[in-house]
Design goal:
By secondary structure, the chain is mainly alpha-helical. The chain has helices at about 5-30, 40-45, 50-55, 60-80, 90-105, 110-115, 120-150, 155-175, 185-195.
Length: about 200
C-alpha cells in the first residue's frame, strides 16, 4: 500500500517549503540571482542544505517558486490599483497602475532587478515571460474601457498593454541595477505611458 501523508504532515511540509521560499526571497533581495545558492538559502532559513534539496530540486526550481509567490502578490497590487470603479477614468487607472508597479519595484531594487532583467536559468526566464504577460493583463481592461468611452484613441488594447510593460521594465532596469532612487522616474514613466496611449496633453 502506498504511503499517504496525513494532513498534519502535509501542513508541516508545506510550512517548511514556504519558509524556504521566504528565505530565498530574502537572499535574492540582498544578493541577486547570481548570489543565491542552496547553502545560502539554507543558512537564511535555519535548516540543513539537504532540507532545501528535499523541497526543491535545485536553484532554478526554488527561484521559480519565489517568482510565482512574488509575482502573484505584485500583480494583485497593480490590478487593484488599476481597477475600475467610482467613476475613475482610464488615464487615472493607468497612472495608478504604473505608479504602483514602478514604485513597488524601486522599494526593493535588487529583487525587482532579478524579476525583470538579471540573467537567469531558462526555466526561470520562462516564468519571467509569464510574469510580464500577467502585468500586461492588468492594463488591458483600463485601455479597452478608455477606448470604449472615447478617453483614448482607437488601438489594440493588448498590444498597447504589452508595449507599456516592456517599456516600463526597460526604463526601470538602469535605476534598479544601480539601485538609484531618482525622484523623476515615476512621473516620467506616467507621462510616457499616457503619451503612448494617446491621452491628450493638458
Amino acid at each position: 500500500m502506498a504511503y499517504r501523508r496525513t494532513p498534519a504532515v502535509q501542513a508541516r511540509l508545506d510550512a517548511q517549503a514556504g519558509s524556504i521560499v521566504r528565505a530565498a526571497m530574502t537572499v535574492l533581495s540582498r544578493d541577486g540571482f547570481a548570489g543565491l545558492s542552496m547553502a545560502a538559502v539554507a543558512a537564511e532559513a535555519g535548516v540543513a542544505t539537504g532540507t532545501v534539496y528535499k523541497n526543491f530540486s535545485g536553484k532554478a526550481e526554488l527561484v521559480t517558486a519565489v517568482f510565482r509567490e512574488v509575482v502573484t502578490r505584485e500583480v494583485d497590487a497593480v490590478a487593484e490599483a488599476g481597477a475600475a470603479g467610482q467613476g475613475r477614468s482610464a488615464p487615472d487607472r493607468v497612472t495608478a497602475a504604473v505608479e504602483t508597479f514602478a514604485g513597488r519595484a524601486l522599494k526593493n531594487p535588487k529583487l525587482a532587478y532579478v524579476l525583470l532583467a538579471e540573467p537567469v536559468d531558462a526555466a526561470v526566464d520562462a516564468e519571467r515571460l509569464r510574469f510580464r504577460r500577467a502585468f500586461a493583463e492588468t492594463y488591458v481592461a483600463a485601455i479597452a474601457d478608455g477606448i470604449a468611452d472615447g478617453q483614448l484613441p482607437p488601438q489594440d488594447p493588448r498590444t498597447s498593454a504589452t508595449a507599456l510593460v516592456g517599456a516600463i521594465g526597460e526604463v526601470l532596469v538602469g535605476p534598479l541595477s544601480e539601485q538609484l532612487q531618482s525622484e523623476s522616474v515615476l512621473p516620467e514613466l506616467v507621462a510616457f505611458a499616457l503619451r503612448a496611449l494617446g491621452v491628450p496633453h493638458e
